[in-house]
## 1
Amino acid sequence: MSTPSTKEAPFKLVHVFDAPRELVFNAFSTAEALAQWWGPAETTNSVLSLDFRPGGVFHFKMEHNGIINYGRFLFGTIRPYDVLEFSNAFADEKGNVIPAPFDIPLPKEILYRLYFTEHAGKTTITITGEPINATPEEKDGMLQISGDMQRGFTATWEKLEHYLAS
Amino acid sequence: MKIRRDVFQAIADPTRRHILETVARQPVNLTTLADKYDMSRQAVSLHVKILSECGLLQITRQGREQWCEAKLKELDEVSRWVDHCRKFWKTQFHSLEHYLDKVQTTKKHKK
């Protein structure tokens, strides 16, 4: 695998945690940990199932004012304690992917990549997110993202920012 | 099967992101565009077609040439999604911070 090229994804966020990398990474790896922090702040969240391995699923429930929604991660690359990859989508009670139950336009499924680095006891997570394609052949293409193509995207976003500011 | 096209599908592919970036700079004709890529003209045409169906790109015919022009307004939807994502993950990371603090405090007490 090549060096992570992260700046080109449409969504990117960097956050520093005051904890060692192993601990931060493991917060994603057990149902016990996820139950304590994962999920939207406005909903009551619970873990339904977790299979923490490539191809495994994390199925969770979100409740708010009697309305229940479900979410699902599908894990891709898991490389302790460096890289974690998963797609996230809304799901039904059986864990099948469904479109977002909101009026605002959102991608049906988002691929997140998390990179963990540690320095002086603090851990930095760099997360990137991009929508996932509908067709399987395009999915294959997306998972082998070429650096050159990706670089072009930064310029698009600069352009977009410029456009939005004008 | 009819595949539903939306802007997220349009930008999910790196080649399409690159095409979008190219045409956002200035309108370009399809032949020039296709020459930039190490793939068949048909493949590039398909990407252009998808971008056009998603409303991010407009194709106009001038004589024998097809010109591609970006429709950046449609990217608002994408930037709204990115904002949504940022807010969501900031909240998640805040919550993760709390959890990590708690776990580390408990550990210290046990020692």
## 2
Amino acid sequence: MITSCIQEPESPKIEVSENSQLMKVREWFEENKTNLRLPERGSNFRTDAQELILPFFEKEPDWDNFHHYYFPDGREVFEVSLENATKYFPKSMLDSFPNQNPANFVIQNIMFIKHETENRFDPVIARYFPENESQGKLFESISYNRLPYDWSGKLEIFTYDEHFFVGFEIKEGIFERSYTYQEVNGDKKINHYNKDVRCTTIYFPVGYQVCGGGQCHTTIERMVGSTSCSGSSGSNFVYNQGSGSDGGSPSSTDAGGCSTCPIPAPTRDLPEYDPPTIPSPKTIIDNLTNECARNIFKELSKGSRNLTDLTGLGGLDIFPGMLDLFEQSGKFDYRIQNGITGGANAITNRINGINVITLSNDYLQSATSLSIARTIIHETVHAYLLEHTYDMNLRSNYSTFDLIEKYNEKYPKSIGDTHHAAMSHFILGMAVSLYNWDKRFGYTGGNLGFDYYYKMAFGGLVRKDNPTLPIDEAKQFISSGSGWTQIDRILQNEAKGTNQANGEKCN
Amino acid sequence: MVKSAIKIGLFSILFFVFFVQKGNAQITSELSNEQHQIFTSIFNKSGDSPTCVYFQTFKYESWMTLIWDKEFLKEDGIAFCVFDNPELKEAFKVLRDRVKILQIKTLNKSILDTKFKLTRNSKKKRVLFVSEPVIIGEYAFQFLKSKTDKSLRVQKKDKEGNWNYECGVPLLFELH
């Protein structure tokens, strides 16, 4: 286990295959780039369709800098840097980056998405606008497939010829909302709600202003709706003609800044360009409606780095790699929500390629914050192990994959048993995370003695046929001098929020 | 006249019962020795606690096709199955047609290891249901389902003719 945690170098075979694939993309792009324009569109800032369209410029990708990954539906993606090209950024960035050139903080890439059936790689442009200076990232550390767990900012997608497609707002690694713009006819008061996605549309007038003799007159021509959706993970976004308008005049648009505005490109022949469908970027979706659980979850995700702090825990026998899981716990996408779980404190499953954690409503009503934090950590480890099982992009780190697979062979009947056996190797790491959460955010401030957090980390690692007993793999990690009865009692007290619990009830 | 009619009726009932039962017996034929070996080999590394198994295999069910769903099957593999060997990738393709013709067959207690207990009670809490193992080249595929999990196991035959673990694909599950 210890040796298996050493990261293996990337296989040269994969690198060669990646580069030859990238060469194909490059060849295709060179051959087709003059045709990659949407039909019947100009290169204007605005069109009659009220779209947000940025000035077109020829794209010259930096082919040496690229990310290679797959969308959840299996389509292959090469995301290549456009670092040397003209950069656009919203005007609001000028306020967030005083005395700085925001263009220096914008990451601008071109994503080539392989067509499902045809031999083509339809491109879209991805722009990462950090919230502030500290959120600025290097090309290597950010991609559509892997948003940093602590990143805040906006990610906006444009078509190849710079029509606004869809935007995403991310706050500390958590998906906040997606947004599109569209001209609207008919009822302007309908908001869209369903179980998973909540959309709100705000309407504003679009018109023109005529000024003369010191007076200005505004004529409203139409209404444009800005639709903002939260909880839309797993959604696919399709480019619609007419999306993309923020309705303002060129001077009032929030997305029209550029570092060196190019001359608009001449109109081209009708293309065979069809903007591809794109999924939500990979990130965490917080759909918790229970306020207390939501706060704990935010504290846990915010503190991913802090949760591995070993200050004051010098005596712990932590081997290299044990805490990697917790450092990376926010680097993969999953959805967290509360709901009905059929008696369990929480369940984690995989729905349409998304890992979904559901915390029990009943449990949240009775448990202490400490117990809920423990459960979120436990379920997050499940989600992490699932990601390593299904996401081939993560296979460069085989140590986690090998660990899960070893137990998958041993437990053919249940992936739950497989996970719990593998999770036993992370008990100490889970305890460190729980301790650090309590120290920074908890009611008891980390003062319960490390052994208490360590005991709580055994939560859920029980036998399926007899949940009052620990699984064999966990037994070996029980400290000498303490028994399972003691551990189980602590877990039950915290879960039920009894007067024997040390944590504070969450609700 | 009436007596003749009764005789004909009785004869028809006997005929029906005899042949239909015989027909059923043909449908629910037994797994071969090799298929039993494949099944037991899945549990080679699991503990000694007895596994309660339903006495018959199950037919094609729609969840099996999740394997070929884009969310699961990727170019390089699927879950614990890595396509280092192109034959495995090819076998997964062939399996797609073969799952549709899975049959109900009975397991033979006398061939199985003692760590398996066969049951006819499908409502038992921890009963495991298995499909008929499908052999494609050197690989064998078998679906397992329980109350909480649905998965596929892949075994590979070695040079000595023994079946060993190759990989697994959890398809539907609930983790607690």
